[in-house]
Amino acid sequence: IFTEEDFALYRDVRQRIQQKIAQAFGISSASMYLTKPTFFSRINSTEAKTTHDEYWHPHVDKVTYGSFDYTSLLYLSDYTEDFGGGRFVFMDAGSNKTVEPRAGRVSFFTSGSENLHRVEKVHWGTRYAITISFTCNPDHSIGDPVL
What we know:
- This protein has two helices and nine strands, in the order αβαββββββββ.
- By secondary structure, the protein is an alpha+beta fold.
- It has a four-stranded antiparallel beta sheet, covered by helices on one side. A three-stranded antiparallel beta sheet has the order 5-4-7, with no helix packed on it. The protein has a two-stranded antiparallel sheet with strand order 3-8.
- GO terms for molecular function: dioxygenase activity; iron ion binding; L-ascorbic acid binding; oxidoreductase activity, acting on paired donors, with incorporation or reduction of molecular oxygen.
């Protein structure tokens, strides 16, 4: 399904996101490591079959995945053009902050309890994104995917 060109593109995008996160949070990109899971998501209005399919519940990535210190999302489809619903919501005391997905938009944040969040249910169409996460603990690092 994937070619070496696809993996080269992924590595380039991952490195660029890693550098931007490091710059934004004032840390060295060398102290950040890719961690699992890194995944593509395809969300539509299909009924959830397992609890893992119930993406709309509020959660904290560090609690859910353990190894995450920084989470990034690269959106691959557009809100209102490709799907309805599916916005990313930071659940802040007093007022929520909402991110409307746009193809090519990258959102990143620290993965701890300061960033409780959820995704609205998708009502129509399909929402595509890739989650690329980083850890500061080399024991939780993984290599880039390869063929």
